[in-house]
Amino acid sequence: MIKGKKLRYERLIFVIAVFLLFSFGISRILGSGDPYKALKEVSNQTKLAGEQKEQFNEENEEQLRFLHYPQFESESMNTKINEYIKKLPQENGITFLDYESNSLNDRYVSVKFHYQLLDKEQKPLKEDYQYISFDLEANREIRLQDIFRGNYVDLISEEFQKQANKKITAPDKAVISLDEEAVHVHCDNASVKLKYSDYQKYIKLAGKGTNKKPLEVKRKLKIDPKKPMIALTFDDGPSPYTDEVMKVFEEHQANASFFMLGQNIQNYPDTVKHMVENGFEICNHSWDHKSIESDDRQHIRKEVFDTQDVLYELTGHEAVYVRPPYGAWNDTTKQVLNQNGLQVALWNVDSEDWKNRDKQITLERAKAGEFDGAMILFHDLYPTTLEAVKELVPYLQSKGYQLVTVSELFKYKSEKTGL
Ligand SMILES: [Zn+2]
C-alpha cells in the first residue's frame, strides 16, 4: 500500500513537470516569454511626428540597450537626434529610451525623449528628459526668441515661480516644446505651460499669436566688410523732419538708424513703416525719454517694452538696440535688456546738434569725429540737423566711408567702435 501511494505521487509530479515544460516551450515559441517585450514594443499613441525607428542591442548582457527615436526629412534635425543618442551614457544595466513627438503647422516639430537606466528587474535607477524642437522651414533648432517677443524672459521667470514654485537661474537657457495648444518651457528639471490663447501678446509664432505679418524690407544695400564704416544715428524722433532725413540717405544709397520714442512713433506711423520698408534700422529710445537708469524693473520694462509693442504692432518688427535716454543705465537696466535679447547702443561722437542748433557747427563737429567705427549722435528734430546731414552724407562717402546701420557697425567694426 505504502509503495503504491509513493508511485502515484511520482507519477503526478512527472505529469506536472511535463505539463510545465510543455507550456513553457509553447510560450517561448509564441514569444510571450521575451522578458524585454515591453521595452521593445512601445506605444505609438504619442508619436505624432516623424518616422519611428528602433535600435536594440542584446548581445552585451551587461549593457542592454532598447532605444526608440524618430527620424525626419530634415537631415539637420536627424543629426541633432543622433548626437543626443550617441551621448547617452554607456552604463551597466538596461538603457531604455522612449519618446513623444508632435508637429505644428507642418513646420515645427518637437520631440520629448525619456531616458531611463533600468536594473535587471527593469526597475528604474535613473531617468532624464530631453527636448528637441525644430523649425523645418528655417532648418534649425527653435530658440526662445523665435517663439516669444517683448519681455518674454521676465514672463518665463514669473511663470516658473507661479506654476512650478521654482526660481530658475537662467531663463534664457530654457528649451521649449510645442503642441497645438501651447508652448511648454523646460528649465532646471521643471516645466511650465503657456497656452497661446492666454499669451497672444508674447507669441510671435506663425498663426498662434497676434500673427502680425512683418513688413517686407525692400531696400537692401551691399556692404564691403573690409572698407571703412560709419553709423549715423538719430534720436528722439520721429518728427516732421524724419521723412526728409531718410530721403537724403535714400538719394545716396546710404543707411542710418533711428532711436525713437514710443510716444512719437504713434504720431508718425507712415514714417516708421517707410523706415522699415527701406531698410533703415529701427531702434528704441524709451517711451517718453524718462531715464531708465533705475533699479525699478517694472519702470524699465514699461519704458522699453511699450515702445517695442508699438513698433511691433505697426511693422511686425522690433528693435534690437536700445539707447537709454541721457546715455544713462546701470546693471539692472542691462540685465532687463540683455535677458530679453536687447543690447545697449551708446555713441562715440556727439554732434551736439540739440545744443548748437547751427548747421555749420553740427557739420564741423561730425566731420571732426569721423573714423572707421564712428557712431555719430544727431537728433532728427531740427532743420539745422537736416541741412547738415545733406552735406555730411556725400562728404563722408567721398572720403570712402560706407554709411551703415548700428547692427552692421557692431557686426563688422565691433572692436573699432570702442563701445
Ligand atoms: Zn534722447
Return the CATH class of the largest domain.
Alpha Beta
**Beta strand %:** 15-25%
Distance between the termini: 109 Å
The domain tally reads 3
Average of the residue pLDDT scores: 92
Percent in helix: 25-40%
Poorly predicted residue ranges: none
Main pleated-sheet profile: 6 strands, mixed
CATH topology grouping of the largest domain: TIM Barrel
* Radius of gyration from the alpha-carbon trace, in angstroms: 32 Å
Structural class: alpha/beta
List the SSEs and their pairings:
Elements (H helix, E strand, L loop, with lengths): L1 H29 L6 H4 L10 E7 L5 E9 L3 H12 L6 E12 L3 E11 L5 E12 L4 E2 L2 H4 L4 H13 L10 E4 L3 E6 L2 E6 L33 E7 L6 H10 L5 E4 L1 H4 L3 H9 L3 E4 L12 H19 L5 E2 L8 H9 L3 E2 L4 E2 L2 H4 L2 H10 L5 E6 L3 H16 L3 E2 L2 H12 L2
Parallel strand pairs: 2-3, 10-11, 10-16, 10-17, 11-12, 13-14, 15-16
Antiparallel strand pairs: 1-2, 3-4, 4-5, 5-6, 7-8, 8-9
Helix pairs in contact: 6-13, 9-10, 12-13
Short description:
The protein is α/β, with parallel strands linked by helices and 419 residues long. It contains 14 helices and 17 strands.
Describe what you observe in this structure.
The strands form four sheets. The protein has a six-stranded mixed sheet, with helices on one face. Strands 10, 11, 12, 15, 16 and 17 form a six-stranded parallel sheet that branches. Strand 3 (93-104) and strand 4 form a beta hairpin. Helix 6 packs parallel to helix 13, helix 9 runs parallel beside helix 10 and helix 12 runs parallel beside helix 13 (383-398). It contains 14 helices and 17 strands. The chain starts with a helix and ends with a helix. The protein folds into three domains: 37-140, Fervidobacterium nodosum Rt17-B1 like (Heat Shock Protein 90, 2-Layer Sandwich), CATH 3.30.565.40; 152-202; 229-417, TIM Barrel, CATH 3.20.20. The mean pLDDT is 92. 37% of the residues lie in helices and 23% in strands. With 419 residues, the chain is of the alpha/beta class. Zinc ion (ZN) binds at residues 235-236, 285, 289, 325.
